[in-house]
Amino acid sequence: MNVTVIGTGYVGLVTGACFSEFGVQVICVDRLAEKIAALKRAEMPIYEPGLEDLVRRNASAGRLEFTTDAREAIRSALVIFIAVGTPPANDGSTDLRHVEAVAREIGQNMDGYKVVVTKSTVPVGTSHKVRLWIEEELKASDKKVNFSVVSNPEFLREGAAIGDFMRPDRVVMGSEDGDDQAMAIMKDLYRPLFLNETPFVLTNLVTSELSKYAANAFLATKISFINEISLLCDKVGGDVQGIARAMGLDNRIGKKFLHAGPGYGGSCFPKDTLSAAHFAREQGTRFEIVEAAINVNQRQRSYALDKIVEACDGDVQGKSVAVLGLSFKPETDDVRESPALDIIAGLQERGARIQAFDPQAMSQASRLLPDVDLCKDAYEACTGADVLVIITEWNQFRMLDFNRIKSLLNEPRLVDLRNIYEKAAMVSQGFVYWSIGRA
After folding, report:
1. Does the structure show a pLDDT above 90 at 92?
2. Which of 18, 28, 268, 312 is an active site residue?
């Protein structure tokens, strides 16, 4: 089976590489010639553990190709995945311009039956729009070609995307009513996962599209809930980690996404919660729980900022702040909607100087933080700083040499926004210590 993936961003590249690992012939398409040239050299546009090896291996085996020639890639494929960006608009809705452009390009170049799959995260009703856009192009060129439209949302975690694709919790596929042919083709494409007894949810287009938003909205709400608890803990002297453990041991709740911190970020949760709330309003209702999660997430960033100001005796004017962690989570270089960006901006507005380090996100951050001193490692970031702040819980920040750090800081002050250290241990080393939800 020949597969074409249009879009070589995070979702498209991982999807194409993983299908090729199954033995499928895959062509990945992108308009950016320099990006395609780099991918042909196995130079990744993103940091994702294991992705470079996967691409290199399957490209060498001839199963994975990269091209800017969308026309030929569309014509050679039975299944075409749309995996382009769907950025948020100013009103919280989803910008579908890239999806529409790809759908129309497919319609212009379709020469036989195809299964067109929306892999990008899109609002409910987008797959129907994809059909209409393709049909408009077919009508304009007076072509009569049958095709199917399928929704197959991605559930990939940055930093663990390959494992999520190869060993997913579930695969969701939605098709148009009665389209058994498309579903049979999709089942065949995903056959290696059927053999691994992966749960499959086979449903209609609307349910499939909404399932992605429902999952991300729920997880974002779970994060916001434990962050609300963290504020209460700081008020009354509770331990949010103990509460999270007590909650997580309840099988009805589960322990994942119960980690207090400065709020969620990344390419999915912020965008998808806004889009879900906007879609609900368009339907004449309110997604009130999700709207509350959005508000709590923004407040949590302000709360984290206040912690840092408190650690500087209420005034960061003229102070140097060492920041460890710029990506929105460990094991990725993605800084989109990262809490670090808002916190750093808030500190700078108050007159602070920032010295920062991240193991992977320095290049991405440099374009967004031109006035931040980006350092070669954690220790250079601490040199001459008045306070150390941990924003992203990279593993290499979990065993820092605090004797060395103490000698580099102007004052032995640590604001641990991810609760990766114990207060008693830090105090015993001479530090004044602040955390989230552990008064």
Report:
1. no
2. 268
